[in-house]
Amino acid sequence: MTVWKTSVRNFLAHKGRMALSAVAVLLSVAFVCGTLVFTDTMNTTFDKLFAVASSDVTVSPKAAGEADELPGNGRPATLPASVVEQVKKADGVQDAEGGVMSMSVTVVDRHNENMGSETGAPTIAGNWTRNDLRSMEITSGHAPRGPTEVMVDADTAEKHRLELGDELRTVAVTGEIRAKISGIATFTVTNPGAAAVFFDTATAQEELLGGAGLFTHVNVTARPGVGDDRLKEDVASALGGAGTYKLQTQKEAAEANKDSMGSFLDVMKYAMLGFAGIAFLVGIFLIVNTFSMLVAQRTREIGLMRAIGSSRKQVNRSVLVEAVLLGVVGSVLGVGAGVGLAVGLMKMMGAMGMELSTEDLTVAWTTPVTGLVLGVVVTVLAAYIPARRAGKVSPMAALRDAGTPADARSGWVRAGIGLVLTGAGAAGLWATARADEAGEGSLYLGLGVVLTLIGFIVIGPLLAGIVVRALSVVVLRLFGPVGRLAERNALRNPRRTGATGAALMIGLALVACLSVVGSSMVASATDELDKSVGTDFIVQSGTGQLIVPQAAEAIEEVPSVEYVTHYKVLKAKLTNPDGSSGEEHVTAADPTYPKDLRRETVAGDLAKAYGENAMSVGSDYAAAHGIEAGDRITVAFEAGRTAELEVAAITSDDTSVDQGAMYISTATAGRYVSAEDLPADMIMFASAVDGKEKEAYEALQEALAPYPQYKVQNQADFKQDLKDQIGQLLNIVYGLLALAIIVAVLGVVNTLALSVVERTREIGLMRAIGLSRRQLRRMIRLESVVIALFGALLGLGLGMGWGTSAQKLLALEGLGVLEIPWPTILTVFVASAFVGLFAALVPAFRAGRMNVLNAIATDG
């Protein structure tokens, strides 16, 4: 009980000094809890939607919904209307209705803007059915009654300011539908962002599926008292067995839809938790420093406790109890802040188009428990070393004000361990740069990153003595005696300076690493485009949609274009000369494609690969299966017949564009796959008539104006788009890393604040012999700046080393250009100085306000 009372008294006595450490715990716990609440809320939203959107049993074609990364021809798999009648006759069926649904559509509003979501949510077109009333209700107008009417969901109508009577244009592979809005339907559950339009059944069949009497699925409702599993058996029996069509109960359909979303949600969840882990790691340094300095300031108090009978264990326990109190306070506040953060993320996603309702806000009991456990455990672990040091304080040494024991030998041991770890990590990075395979190199890279990071943290005090002195020559000596005092203060406790700088080092190392990787990717891709891409224009969808035939025809009709190249991807089973076989993707392109993309040929003649019954393979595939030019491969097209094709060429896979691609001509593809089953173009290329590049560019944009889902890019546009995409990704990562950097800044503030308290008497004496308030504040600011620059220098150097090694792995994938983004690196370094200035504002102000006589008289 005495230990508890002492700990509580000390905690309350130093609550101001604990505040910043509590904020670090709060931020880290808030990020973890916010991530869990946000992802749980997303899961709840999708679970509710999937649970009510499906009928008791859904019947669909066997091929529908199977995992396949290729978009095919853009036509949904269908089943005949006769299946609906068969299902109606099954035992246990109360009702069955045919449904039409297609997600290979683009809906364009009256302003010729694509109404599709920018967050990846689908645009869905179909017929309005009784099953839709499970999740929606008509709140304005009426359901569509003919080919000139369409109904739209309320969220999309609100976003695009649509009203009854407005005309919408729905573009599908099978054609276009122009219809006026007859009704608006509102989701009764949260719609995460999909845009939905509905037609009458006949129009949907004809315009979305290409013919009457076809459906994409059948919605089946059970009779009262009949379970879904029993209903599924009855329907399967009526259809001649479960293997004829795919049958799913409502629960199975919901689980299948949930699984399709699972990977996206998991990536988001674990990425955000990873950044929270980085913030926790940085917070550890802050807490270690806080307790180390508090223990040092209470040396005499600890000595008195030991002198009157307190054991080492009791002193140790007293410090750890304070850490528990800090962890609990910070974690409880962090859990609350995490819920607020989740709501903020939901609002941000709503602004981007993914609607998440706070009514679905989900706070599982595991979330606050996880936050509390993590916060308390991390805080206690961070305080353990200072607690042990406190327990080692000798009563007599403490009473003589000798302070905590200094062990020079332990310092040398630490330095030795740090050098060994750093050397081992450097060896891992060196091995990464010389790896021949990406998998092997990734292991070396991970090992090198971890070991160098730990090594730099351990060796921090030694590096502080070297780097701070070097920085002082350049930065501090310019300020005369005040600068020398700042240098001395920064070097007074190298262990403290090293820990404070290490906190900032971690965040900036990741920033530097990702900057190098991102810049190298852009530079490599740009270089590869310059060397390989010969086409003038590239036409594609930013969301991966197929190029519909009417858009392809519009491209071909542009008069200032010399030729157009189609590019399709087919799935096929290949049987090689060595007897091996497997599923592969085969690219079908026009004979002009070698002009659009210059590929190095290591054997044979690539032009002949676009001839009759010929193909090319990549060098890696050829080496793996012992294929040589002239060999024959049996190609069984998934949607067509089987062909025996001669390998006319083997192309080099030392590239990042179309790496590993196998080429055939579109004529060969058309010979073995029917026109109806032939995939639509994934991308198209166009080259202008000489001297008419600008005219062709403008004409292509004008021709595709009715199709806003596609964009025409020349090579400069394509490069800029690539740069922008990588830049946006990096900005998101930098934003998440900002949490770790904020915690590191709090660490600098806390270190300086506690250091000022620790040096109260010294500051009073310096003021007494003539140091002005301005000089005192400048001294503290300069100390803060040099600590921040120390951490920045270590972090940027370490990060560039990681990034350079990572780029060597990218080189194995054809991205061989290393580019160091010096403007970014220098900007971050200079910004670190301003971070140091900002961190010193409050400590410097408080130091300047000290009463000289009181400061000299203080015991602390």
TrEMBL record:
Cellular component annotations (GO), alphabetically ordered: plasma membrane
Does the keyword Repeat belong to this entry? no
The UniProt entry, under InterPro entries, shows: ABC3_permease_C, MacB_PCD, Macrolide_Exporter_MacB
Q: Please list the residue ranges annotated as the ABC3 transporter permease C-terminal domain.
A: 275-395, 736-851
Protein's cellular compartments: Cell membrane
What parts of the sequence cross the membrane? 270-296, 319-343, 363-385, 412-431, 443-476, 497-517, 732-757, 782-802, 822-845
Q: Which UniProt keywords apply?
A: Cell membrane, Membrane, Transmembrane, Transmembrane helix
Q: Where is the MacB-like periplasmic core domain?
A: 19-236, 500-703
| Recorded GO MF terms | transmembrane transporter activity
Membrane topology classification: Multi-pass membrane protein
The record, for PANTHER family, names: ABC TRANSPORTER PERMEASE YTRF, MEMBRANE COMPONENT OF TRANSPORTER-RELATED
Its family remark reads: Belongs to the ABC-4 integral membrane protein family.
Name the UniProt record assigns to this protein? ABC transporter permease
The organism encoding this protein is Streptomyces nitrosporeus
